[in-house]
Amino acid sequence: MRDRVFEKSDYQQLIISTILLSIQPVNEASLYLDSKSKLSMKSWSSKSNATNIDLMANTDVIIRHGHLLSRLIDKAHCGSTLASLLHCYYQLYGKRCAADLVTAFSKL
Question: Which GO terms describe its cellular component (predicted)?
Answer without folding.
Answer: DNA-directed RNA polymerase complex
